[in-house]
Amino acid sequence: AKGSVVTTPINSEDEAYDAPVSIGTPAQPFNLDFDTGSSDLWVFSSLTPSNERNGQNIYTASRSSTAKQLSGESWKISYGDGSSSSGLVYSDVVTIGGLTAAGQAVEAASRVSQSFTSESATDGLVGLAFSSINTVSPDQQTTFFDTVKPSLASPVFTADLKHQAPGTYNFGFIDKSAFTGSITYTPVDNSQGFWGFTSTGFQVGNNDFQQESITGIADTGTTLLLLPDDVVNAYYSSVNNAQNDQSAGGFTVPCDTSLPDFSFGVGNNGAMITIPGSLMNLGPSGSGNSCFGGLQSSGTIGTNIFGDVALKAAFVVFDSGSQGQPQLGWASK
Ligand SMILES: CC[C@H](C)[C@H](NC(=O)[C@H](C)NC(=O)[C@@H](CCSC)NC[C@@H](N)Cc1ccccc1)C(=O)O
Predict the structure, then answer these.
(1) Among 38, 120, 122, 137, which is best to mutate for testing ligand 1, by the most ligand atoms less than 8 A from CB?
(2) Over the stretch 187-198, which tens digit does the pLDDT of each residue have?
(3) For 289-329, what is each residue's pLDDT tens digit?
(4) 15 by DSSP, 3-state: which?
(5) Interval between CA 219 and ligand 1 midpoint (Å)
(6) Following CA atoms 217, 158, 67, 53 in sequence, which dihedral angle do they give, to the nearest 10 degrees?
(7) Ligand 1 test: best mutation among 34, 38, 79, 197, most atoms within 8 Å of CB?
């Protein structure tokens, strides 16, 4: 089987990307954030207090003839940005891009933190990291991808995110028309439950390539590209009047500045993904006439995150084991 679903930026800064998901019988529609940086499929629900809702679609299990509560099961998740949610667990029919997962764990939120409440465009998340970090307790559940994987023509999904335009998540196949050149594969370390990999280095504009192992995760659910301080400083030192503005929360640049491209190395054949300078500016920073940089420090998090700023410059293959061990494929587009 194969699936294909359109994913759309929730605002002009490409802060996050939503895609349509149907849950239950009859189908209840949702706009969910597909997140390769976590492994819980959770939705706003009839259990979510009304003062924690802000127009989101809500899942009502009692209105679905195929919903079954997983008694005694609950979930509770925290994210790197300090947000969190928790609740109860049902199994129900979940359909994404023509692919149907019967008996998928649907995590209904009985509480969500403020940043989820205020993001009215997003009704929840579809976790696409490894099921080993799914938070359902006492019986851990599988991600949508792991649930449907046996039915897929190939155990892969791909992300093709775009700047201020609809993109695509495909399941079970690689669309050769969606990228240019060849796909460079690199091994994945999933020991922490993420799509972890090591980039071979970086290049600012047309400067020399800097060889430096940068270990991080491919995270479609994170907006920014979060890398070590030496990389971030090398980039912004080449931008006039860039400044690390704590009140803005990181590096800002003058909004009218044309920014250098940023490239990062993948695989061992010298392949690079190049983020055009225009995509390194996330728009007004909220302080002065400065704009917020798409590259920021991973400093305090402890892991580097190749979020949407990086991923939207590439066609990315999340391959859970078509060749044995999991791997990430990277192609330009
Ligand atoms: C503070 C929590 C730490 C980071 C850790 N949690 C995680 O790693 C979780 C699974 N993943 C995340 O917090 C991050 C990756 C952090 S790097 C380890 N990815 C998912 C995040 N972007 C989802 C999101 C989407 C929209 C709005 C907000 C959040 C834990 O539970 O220990």
Answers:
(1) 38
(2) 999 999 999 999
(3) 899 999 999 998 889 999 999 999 999 999 999 888 999 99
(4) coil
(5) 9
(6) 60
(7) 79
